[in-house]
Amino acid sequence: MFSAQGDKNQYTEVEQLSALSSIAVLKDDFRHKILSHKGLNNIHEYANWQLAIDAVLDGSNAAIFFSDPGMQYFCATKGNDCNALTRVFMYQTMRSYLVLSKVESNKKLVQKLMIAAEQYKNTTEFAELSQQWLKQYESQPIRIPMHIENGVLNLWDQ
Q1: Which end of the chain has fewer beta carbons closer than 10 Å to its terminal beta carbon, N or C?
Q2: Is 102 inside a domain boundary?
Q3: pTM here?
Q4: Quick one: the chain helix, strand, coil %, rounded to 5?
């Protein structure tokens, strides 16, 4: 979460965010649902991220619940001056793993990792998660060509 109003606080719990006068979110985004689930009533919904960022930059909202890469992308591509925005809360740190084997890798371990990845890739959980992320990116004002093929996100049109 980022604030442009000189908020020097570092919030550590979602419930503490009720101290902010207003928080901009993308309507029905998972962050919106997190705040709603915790009972916060200082939420302002927006149809797209650019509107939400603009509302924070112009002072209409105290903060925006958005990711670091998302902020970097929208600030860079739209020419917004986001220097005044500072992170005041981090909900979760998400990690992604990419496994590449070296020539001298343990072949049994490589095989186990390949099987585990293939099994997860074939689950409905992975399919639903993939579609959820694609829909979020498709709804953005700047279209990023992408599709998922065989469990891999490709950054070009199919």
Answers
A1: C
A2: no
A3: 0.61
A4: 40, 15, 45
